[in-house]
Amino acid sequence: MAYDRMVALGVDADRFTYPSVLRACGELREVSVGRKINRRIRRRRHDLDMHVWNALVGMYVKFGELEDARRVFDGMAGRDVVSWNTMVSGYASTGMWGEAFELLQQVPGANTVTWNAVAAGNLKAGNYDEVFRLLSQMRNCHGPGVDSVSLLIGLKACGKSGSLRVGREVHGVAVRLYFDGLECVVNSLITMYSRCRIMSSAELLFRMCLVRSIIAWNSLLVGFVFMDKVEEASSLFREMIGSGVCPNDVTVLTLVSLAARFGHLCHGRELHCYILRHGLGGSKLLQNSLVDMYSKSRHMTASQRVFDRMELRDKHAYTSLILGYGMQREGHVSLKLFDEMIANCIEPDHVTMVAALSACSHSGLVTQGQLLFTKMFAVFGTAPRVEHFSCMVDLYCREGLLKMAEEIIGKMQFQPTPAMLATLVEACLIHGNIEIGERAAKKLLTMRTNNPGHYKLIANMYIFAKCWPELAKVRSLMSTIELAMIPSHSLLESVYDICPGEQDNYLKHGMYCGLSDRTTDTDSSSSEEVKCSEAFGG
């Protein structure tokens, strides 16, 4: 280190040397060296200027040693705007909002940059009400005033919190200060109205733009996706292409994720064709999204093809494929992919474990599921979460292992979810185990859920067991909490419509209302694929 050699040679550092050395200590996190320099500075503080003390405060802030930074700050003979900004920003960056705001009130002539730093920190921490309070104080007679950055922070907070009223007020401020013509502000307004589910205002702002950048197009497109408006998003994408605007990775990723969420294979194939024709398929994130989209659409041949062509495969690609094969009840393929992933030194996360356990559940692989669940923490270091326990309950219930399902619910350290208990009640109804079903039903009733299907499920079980007093209590409870029954078809009504000789067989092999796949394994979208291929020239 040059500073150490300089000291060893007996050359004294001065007010020009120390700021550079202190900044280097802060960047390199050299705490011990920094403290040594601090002691040297204190011994000769009489001939050092403000730049040295500011650098010392900044170094301690970089270390995260806010108490030491404040001690230096309080001991300074004089302070400038850099001193105040460094200390306030240090508090804000570590989430010490009370200290940051208290110090902010003491800043003589605090500028907008200082206030924006605290507001941005609160935004990052999710303290949206605090952001609104700071913006309000900035606008009053004692505040420094707002600039375009302040408005962007405020609009982002409004969008994330869904505060439409405040968002409209910020929009009004932007108009009065003539910031509404700035591209960044317009794009933030479009995003804010989209997040607040006011797409009419978002689209009006978009149409009023004289020059629409790719960011403006993406802002409106993300709004349609946020509102699950598939056709509007697809129409806007076609309009974008027709306008000569070249979509970027964000555009395509947004649409692929929408196609994956709704299983719109036709739109997904169109996008894939566009990606291939325009050479946009090099992004690993985009390739992962395509694997996910085809997997969720149950088109495993296409998903596997995209996966095989990837040069670098990560846990996200493997997880999508494992989940896709699991949904097709090809659990052995899913487990083979899981083993391949481990062999390639790719560590699974909790989402991967959910996909693998779900695959075991759909394919009835009880032993393999138990082994995976045991390995989660012991081998892979992933602590089981409630969704992993849900997979195990699902696995046991599908195979009629109701006692094991009840035991794992009782042993887990989490509160069971209503869906978990409903799964057990439904399995008990199908397998005729009223004893366990009643215990699960009582726990489910104490949760007072707002799902009418849960109460109808419990009622059907009591009807099956001819427990009329308990059935009356369920109906009384429903009337007490004013739950309206949704129109549905009772499983038991279906059973008793079948001839007596087939009733047991139906109960044994019938589909679980809450557990089974609602769609068939057959890909019914082949005609749509032909249309897509024809539309893009094959």
TrEMBL record:
Residues 518-538 are annotated as: Disordered. InterPro entries: E_motif, PPR_At4g14850-like_plant, PPR_rpt, TPR-like_helical_dom_sf. The keyword Disulfide bond does not apply. PPR repeats lie at residues 49-83, 111-141, 213-247, 314-348. GO terms for molecular function: RNA binding. GO terms for biological process: RNA modification. Keywords: Repeat, Transit peptide. It comes from the Eukaryota. The keyword Transit peptide applies. PANTHER family: PENTATRICOPEPTIDE REPEAT-CONTAINING PROTEIN (PTHR47926:SF375). This is Pentacotripeptide-repeat region of PRORP domain-containing protein. The lineage of its organism: Eukaryota, Viridiplantae, Streptophyta, Embryophyta, Tracheophyta.
